[in-house]
Amino acid sequence: APPFAPPSAPPSAPxxxxxxxxPxxxxxxxxxxxxxxxxxxxxxxxxxLRSCVREFLAxxxxxxxxxxxxxxxxxxxxxxxxxxxxxxxxxxxxVVNEPGAVGTRVARSYLRFGQMELFTQRGELPLxxxxxxHALTREFGHLLLQHPDEPRTRSYVRMFREACExxxxxMAEWLxxxxxxxxxxxxxxxxxxxxxxxxxAGA
Length: 203
Hints:
This protein is α+β, with helices and mostly antiparallel strands. The chain is built from five helices and six strands. The protein is 35% helix and 21% strand. Helix 2 runs antiparallel to helix 3. The protein starts with 27 loop residues before the first strand and ends with a strand.
């Protein structure tokens, strides 16, 4: 059995840019949508305006409260009607048509703990090392500047320690403002220590 649960839902923030950005662009965009894929046949690849607006308001409120977070760049209506289960005025679930939308967020990266776990669980060590190297240069490049001559293995240890510290500080910030992440798993935890997922959450 795998040491962690396989994903039960598709990623809702696929990164849109993977090439190194120019010096003037230090953040990468991603789109909020339910990704359609063969392993998740129940999802249609579309998001609704209600969810995108919620993510916009929540992430900007967290930024104003000085909690590390991804930021919302824009929300654009698609003009499509999207069928979803939602609650009626009587509080019961029902199938409704909602306006579709795409929410675009920006962050330094969208690297997640779950990506490291996946390569580890599969035993794909060359890919794991490649991802670790990317994370080191993308999210923790200051460690290379501070310790330019040390072995790479030592840099990885420093990166791991700082990633844990950032995550602990992020949790403390959530507690400070009364934010509750309702789906806190490694797929929704960013290596950079920022709030990533605003799906099942409360404040």
